[in-house]
Amino acid sequence: MKYIISIIRVLFLLLFLFLVLNGKMMLWFALLAVSLLLALVFGSYFIEKLGIVMMLIKGEKDY
Predict the structure, then answer these.
(1) How many helices and strands, by DSSP H and E, does the chain display?
(2) How many domains does the chain contain in total?
(3) Hey, is 22 helix, strand or coil?
(4) Domain boundaries, position 27
């Protein structure tokens, strides 16, 4: 999993450099804003699912 995360970080760095060097800074800001919103939405979804899984592992019934 860390391998995939490293690849994604390098790809975003290359995309950032490409867009900045071509003068497309507003496009980079738009991509950044979309990625932050998606992380907010999907991050809370996966944290909630992880919490339910952890409760099931511990044997709690209040999920």
Answers:
(1) 2, 0
(2) 1
(3) coil
(4) 2-58
